[in-house]
Amino acid sequence: MNEGRTVTNGIVEEVAPPETVNERRLQRQPVAPPETVNERRLRRQPVWMNNYDVGEGLSEEENEANVALFTSDDPFYFEEAVKSSKWREAMDSEIKAIKKNKTWVLTDLPAGAKKIGVKWVYKTKLNEHGDIDKYKARLVAKGYVQQHGIDYTEVFAPVARLDTIRLIVAFAATKGWIIYQFDVKSAFLHGELSEEVYVEQPRGYELYDHPQKVYKLKKALYGLKQAPRAWFSRIEAHFLTEGFEKCHNEHTLFTKTSKEGKILIVSLYVDDLIFTGNDEAMFNEFKSSMVREFDMTDLGKMRYFLGIEILQMADGTYISQRKYSLDVLKRFGMEESNSVKNPIVPGGKVFKDQEGVKVDTTFFKQVVGSLMYLTATRPDLMFVVSLISRYAAQPTELHLQVAK
Amino acid sequence: MKGTTNFGIFYKKGGSDELIAFTDSDYAGDLEDRKSTSGYVFMLSSGAVSWSSKKQPVVTLSTIEAEFVAAASCACQVVWMRRILEKLGHSHGNSTTIFCDNSSTIKLSKNPVMHGRSKHIDVRFHFLRDLTKEGTVELIYCGTQDQAADVMTKPLKLESFLKMRELLGVREVPAVN
After folding, report:
1. Which residues in chain A touch residue B165, judged by CB atoms under 8 angstroms apart?
2. What's the confidence (pLDDT) of residue A150?
3. Which of A90, A163, B32, B164, by CA, is between 20 and 30 Å from A214?
4. ipTM
């Protein structure tokens, strides 16, 4: 818009013909470029995602300020991290794990093939009391440069439906079975790749005698587009060889029945899995086979899964989202709100409010989205939430009031 | 919401392992386009396991029709849940019961009666009739006061809201020590 207007203001005033007056005024009071919705929006992970490693969204384009929101004072650049010994140790152990896992082999880059960059991501892991547990450096591939059809073909990996999870919980509760939970460490690294993927040598671990060589990946790295799928295929294959039967209506549900009619039920949610059944021997067999094959953390009884708290007691099981709902209240600044007994006023009408004051659509959508997840354990709120979500396109003050 | 942060669903041990469903609709609940709301709740072992509250995709001409559409979507879920439960080693010899508070809908699901007000009901909603014939589902009448799916379709008075919440198995979770 300013093209060809390199003249200074003074000159323009002298020579400008009268009809450009308006233009000049415009130029003098530059209108701030309209912020796009995306720029204003802070990319924040949903609270329940905090426990998960995601394959996507690790791109460098995420600007630093946003990343700082959830990584407090962890270093962002390699140059920063390499200065402190704790991060160097963390990177050493990651490289060691990769080597042990036989993730890659050193090779020359074939002509025409493309290599994918890798970068380090640093994160301080806290334990449940908020103390520092360990420093974790993770090597991730810059999966965002991958192109569909060239670098990867299939990315879909199924996850369990909440309905199924609840069904299993309820079913186990009636039978009095205990549900156990496992967490697979570095799950995605176990996935075996079917495509040929080459990555560059990681910063700080370049081989000086072979600077041109690249690593050919045999197993997935975090950040690759196909990492979740590779992992799912891997664990699926493992279950099938172990004699599990896959449920055709729910791909993440596996069952194994013994000749005596004992049963073992396993449900998978990316790298978390829960299992229940009625035979101790089968539990142990399953546990040892999983530990042999993958790096597992035994979390014992199922207590916290996808942000849902599960309390297994002698007389039954409770599921709730206390922590999540408190987080939601805090996030939207509603800790001080008065509590109501009934989520909606009977007889109150909600409608499209054409004249009403418009509120921030993004904010409204965030509220609705957070509430939506809360309905995972709160059927009594379901109606209200789906009612307000109908107005997500054109929210106004009225709807926001209802939302609160 | 604030007052009920520590509420959750309770599944009782040794409770009924029969899957039951409730379906309900709110006729022309949306003031803009007069579409109805359908809702269903599935109960297993004294707690709700699956539920939904949705605005119907079509405009319906009568309450029966609205109920019928709601019951049909509920029936789809029944089929899916039965398959999952079968996989979990749960045998259900008889049909799954769907409770509905509209007796005309129940009749409509049993007999292929065609009359003035129902002849236009779309084929896909007759899926329900098919399932009833096969014996996968059975529709049974229940009064509005025991209708757990009511809370999915309309704003309720406090008193009945609390009662419905109880019915769904939602209650305060005891403090963990």
Report:
1. 380
2. 60
3. A90
4. 0.72
